[in-house]
Design a protein that fits this description.
By secondary structure, the chain is an alpha+beta fold. The chain folds into 2 domains: 126 residues, no CATH class; 97 residues, Elongation Factor Tu (Ef-tu), domain 3 (Beta Barrel). It is 22% helix and 40% strand. The protein has 3 helices and 15 strands. Strands 3, 4, 5, 6, 7, 8, 9, 10, 11, 12, 13, 14 and 15 form a 13-stranded antiparallel sheet that branches. A two-stranded antiparallel sheet has the order 1-2. Strand 12 and strand 13 form a beta hairpin. The chain starts with 9 loop residues before the first helix and ends in a 5-residue tail after the last strand. About 2% of the residues have low confidence.
């Protein structure tokens, strides 16, 4: 028996290469399509999260704001793409008040705080107990420190500078709020629009809260009692919010994200608990 030795012909080699190329291209298209769908789904989830974050932030900021004939309105600025509010950081009740320090009860149930009060950033709102009832705005002049109330119970001493007019009607039992003025607005950064927050007292740079959003993606319509639009913060009873977000590729962040822009929006009506 004889053996015939024969190599691979050029035709067979070409056919093998063509089949390998077709299989590689098919596998690549399947993987690329899967990766695109995964990225698209992830960016859609991120977009929906941004809408929820901004809607919750606007509601949390605007719902509790009130107003007083003496201390003014907690809604300080009301514009179509931004607003400024007095945001409460702590609350409690006084057990003592002098021209240099207010002492708040620091026992559980009396004092509630998101963080420690900061001088230069926070101010105090204290209610006068003598009629007519009103609130007085008093700056915090120093770092608070532990102390004691006249009855010996734990207290928090808040350094202030208050004259006799500011102290009139302020004493033990007076409600106290620690607040800072916060701005929420739409702004441009890195080729995209974002919704951000900043403290006005410190002059800090605005920090992104969520995004990216469409141009004009934050729209605020202020309404007075009964529904008519108003531009006066003192007359605002409700706020109609419309926020329009974009997927990350539509916002132009990072490398090219694909040809499809995927916007989405949310609409919400925020009603002030303390309507004018």
């Amino acid at each position: 028996m004889s053996l015939t030795r024969r190599g691979i012909s050029i035709v067979e080699l070409v056919v093998a290469l063509v089949l390998t190329t077709l299989l590689a291209a098919l596998c690549w298209s399947i993987l690329a399509a899967g990766a695109f769908r995964l990225r698209d789904r992830s960016e859609r989830m991120s977009l929906e999260h941004s809408l929820r974050v901004v809607s919750a932030a606007v509601r949390a900021a605007l719902e509790p704001v009130g107003q007083d004939s003496s201390a003014g309105n907690d809604l300080v600025v009301a514009l179509p793409d931004r607003f400024v509010t007095r945001t409460t950081r702590a609350s409690g009740a006084l057990c003592d008040a002098t021209s240099t320090a207010f002492t708040a009860r620091a026992t559980p149930g009396w004092w509630s705080a998101l963080r420690n009060p900061v001088p230069g950033r926070d101010s105090l709102l204290v209610e006068r107990l003598s009629p007519p009832s009103s609130w007085e705005v008093i700056p915090l002049s120093g770092v608070p420190y532990p102390g004691a109330c006249p009855d010996g119970s734990p207290g928090l001493v808040l350094p202030v500078i208050a004259d006799s007019a500011a102290l009139a009607g302020v004493g033990a039992g007076a409600p106290l709020r620690v607040f800072e003025e916060m701005e929420l607005r739409l702004y441009a950064s890195s080729g995209a629009m974002w919704v951000g927050l900043r403290s006005l007292a410190t002059g800090e740079a605005i920090q992104p809260l969520a995004g990216p959003f469409a141009t004009g993606g934050l729209q605020l319509q202020y309404r007075s009692l009964g529904g008519p639009p108003t531009a006066d913060p003192a007359e605002v009873a409700s706020v109609l919010l419309r926020v329009t977000g974009l997927t990350e590729r539509a916002g132009g962040v990072g490398i090219s994200r694909g040809p499809v822009a995927r916007p989405d929006s949310a609409v919400m009506l925020v009603i002030r608990r303390n309507s004018p």
